[in-house]
Amino acid sequence: MRALVIGGAGYIGSVVSKHLLEAGHRVTVADDMSKGHDWAVPDDAEFRAVDVRDQEALAEVVAEGFDAVLHFAALSLVGESVTEPVRYFKTNVGGSLNLLDAMRAGGCRRLVFSSTAAVYGEPEAIPIPESAPTRPTNPYGASKIAVDMAIGYEAAASGLGAVSLRYFNVAGASGRQGELHDPETHLIPSVLKVALGEGDAVRIFGTDYPTPDGTAIRDYIHVDDLARAHLLALEATVEPGHRIFNLGNGTGFSVREVVDTARLVTGCQIPAVESPRRPGDPPVLVASSDRIRAELGWVPQKPALEDMVSDAWQWMRVHGRAAALQD
Ligand code: UDP
């Protein structure tokens, strides 16, 4: 299959591109490089520089003729979305609408979209099924539910075959591809940076949540397991219509548990300081992954938090510094 991976120079998009190539697909990565990295783009992928907000440029790339598009390009920081909501809607919603237009015009009928657990806001029940009400508590989640809805209507109108994958917290690394953001806001890389001596202490955002140890609980999924789910989703897009799957392990870990696991894996002390809650953060997000297991046959191969932290740690030590220097 000839696949267009939009946002394929970023953390998740690059790992999925690698898996697609390994499975024998042809891959073209499109990225505006605002968050992506040259080193992350797999050697065997073609590359197009394009910003999803540029309707004409995007349409030109899509018109080259692809069997499917995997769309990762988005702004994804909850805190930033709270302070800059319009920028989030312009890129995440505007960019996706440009893509849907370009796909219809270019005759491309298969789409896999990166959605998020943030669409559920503060869930009524844990683990969260796909049928849970979508009430995002921040502009990031709101921008993603807007796109999920647009895809649903477009699929009904045009016969598009689409899958939205609602990611929970992605972690770990895959060979040369790993997580490097500037600034880094995600928990696991932030903790590991302290272990590497970059920063004095990790901040624990909120210790007064209604959880057993008072810190927020998230469902972490290994990036390789996430990538495997994308390949299954891609196969499922052969059928017209829009399907939505949560993508997590079904197990939650608190911020303190993550810090403790990182101490174990690295053998470093990793000082932690208690800080106020971060705006927009829900207390608990844990996926029910029953649907993707039952319908697509997805089975995670690396569900242990220790494996995710350990893979991220290995990557940071082997590739991290060199990768940061190349940027
Ligand atoms: N978090 C934290 N300290 C940090 C970064 C994150 O306590 O330096 C918390 C954050 O408030 C959330 C959890 O860790 O409860 C996971 O945050 P992350 O940014 O990794 O992912 P998110 O759940 O926001 O997508």
Describe the structure.
The protein is an alpha/beta fold. The protein folds into two domains: 2-168 and 221-247, Rossmann fold, CATH 3.40.50.720; 187-218 and 251-326, UDP-galactose 4-epimerase, domain 1 (Alpha-Beta Complex), CATH 3.90.25.10. The chain has helices spanning 11-22, 55-62, 78-83, 85-106, 139-158, 187-195, 223-236, 255-266, 290-296, 305-326; strands at residues 2-6, 26-31, 46-49, 68-71, 110-116, 161-167, 169-171, 202-205, 217-218, 220-222, 241-247, 253-254, 272-275, 284-285. The strands form four sheets. A seven-stranded parallel beta sheet has the order 3-2-1-4-5-6-11, sandwiched between helices. Helix 5 (139-158) links the parallel strand 5 (110-116) and strand 6 (161-167). Helix 2 packs parallel to helix 4 (85-106) and helix 8 (255-266) packs across helix 10 (305-326).
Number of domains: 2
Low-confidence stretches: none
Which band does the percent of strand residues land in? Answer: 15-25%
CATH architecture of the largest domain: 3-Layer(aba) Sandwich
CATH fold naming of the largest domain: Rossmann fold
Total of DSSP H or I helical runs spanning 4+ residues: 10
The CATH superfamily label of the largest domain reads NAD(P)-binding Rossmann-like Domain
Q: Give the cofactors and ligands.
A: uridine-5'-diphosphate
- Largest sheet features: 7 strands, parallel
Oligomer state equals single chain
**Residue share in helices?**
40-55%
Give the rounded overall mean pLDDT. 96
The shape is: globular
